[in-house]
Amino acid sequence: MSQPAIVAEHLTVRFRPYLDRRPTLKKSLSGVRRKAGLVTALDDVGFRIDRGEAFGVVGANGAGKSTLLRVLAGTLIPDEGRVARHGRTSTLLQLGVGFNTELSGSRNIYLGAMAAGLAPDQVDERFDAIVEYSGLGHAIDRPLKTYSSGMFSRLAFSVGMYLDPEILLLDEVLAVGDEAFRRKSMRSMRELVDRSGTIVLVSHNLSSIADFCDRAMWLEDGVVREIGPAEEVVGKYGLVARAAPVTLAGREVRPVPDEGWPSRVRSKVVIQLLAGANIEDLAYEYSVTVDDLKQWRTAFVEGGRRALDELEERSGSRHA
Predict the structure, then answer these.
(1) 258/89 Cα distance (integer angstroms)
(2) Are 300 and 245 in contact (CB under 8 A)?
(3) What is the average pLDDT score of the chain?
(4) Which residue ranges of the chain lie beneath pLDDT 70?
(5) Are 215 and 47 in contact (CB under 8 A)?
(6) Cβ count near 298 (within 10 Å)
(7) What pLDDT is recorded for position 106?
(8) Residue 75: which of 94, 54, 96, 47 has the closest Cα?
(9) Of 87, 204, 196, 105, nearest to 156 (Cα)?
(10) How do residues 144-154 score in pLDDT, each as one tens digit?
(11) Are 153 and 286 in contact, with CB atoms under 8 Å apart?
(12) Over the stretch 87-96, which tens digit does the pLDDT of each residue have?
């Protein structure tokens, strides 16, 4: 019988957000902010993940995915329920936690690893291997603020992988850096799973979840919608997510769908691209290739034009 790596029971997390309305001058000076009603981020969530399993979590923004990872990492205590973790846990909830951009890559290896719980002598033992894995060469002695986003992510991921985790929690960092480093990082994670390690992955990249994970969980408004084989869960979630329209220039437009990706996520990325965002930075942030983004942009623009043409035709027929 398989041994459990993570067992979550009846996880419920509630919080009270602050209203984002413009306060009066008096309230601004007093530092008092108005509070909204309670929001339930997770509602009676339960599941079991076995050792040697890659487990994906999908859902729209605000579904509770990142909150769940924080609970699994132990950095957030749930209002109700419990989590049992069986093994050393490493988190990459955000690349580069603990890094200082004014210091060199070398110094940041120590900062990042010690922030994750390693002692200085343990970092000494792993330092050369981390540098070699990152592929940064002499750049390791340069200040982090001179690094490109790809170099930064390669260093952060390398530090995370050399914490020797038995359970690895990942939030939108399935593969990072350039194409060669992405392949290396994917191999490392697969090797971890093959050694009976466990990976919990949150990502909007549905095709990667389907390819990499054994099972997946679909969260919707903090509630478990479905748990099952990754391909099946991703397929069902993708059908629902791709049906959501986006608004462009004040009009509702449904872009051409892309297999494996929610259309609203694609649309959000393309709108950032059309607004002037750097295409390489977006490719890194969403773990896709530059060619993918170019194809998305073309499909989005063509789909938007067709939708607007249809609206104009319908409007013209009404006024004829």
Answers:
(1) 34
(2) no
(3) 79
(4) 1, 17-37, 92-98, 172-178, 240-264, 281, 283-289, 307-309, 311, 314-320
(5) no
(6) 12
(7) 95
(8) 94
(9) 105
(10) 999 987 788 88
(11) no
(12) 888 776 566 6
The answer to whether the beta carbons of residues 246 and 267 sit under 8 Å apart is yes
Encoding tokens for residue 165?
């985790």
Confidence at residue 10, expressed as pLDDT on a 0 to 100 scale: 96
Q: Quick one: 226 exposed, middle or buried, by C-beta within 10 A (0-12, 13-18, 19+)?
A: middle
Q: Cα separation of 172 and 290, whole Å?
A: 17
CA-CA-CA-CA torsion sign (45, 50, 51, 52): negative
**Amino acid of residue 297:** R
CA separation for the pair 217, 17 (Å, rounded): 26
Backbone angles phi, psi at 228, to 5 degrees: 180, -165
Sequence-distant (6+) residues with CB within 8 A of 216 are 55, 56, 57, 58, 209, 210, 227, 228, 229, 230, 233, 234
Distance from first CA to last CA of the chain, Å, rounded? 72
Please give the distance of CA 255 from its chain centroid, rounded to a whole number: 23
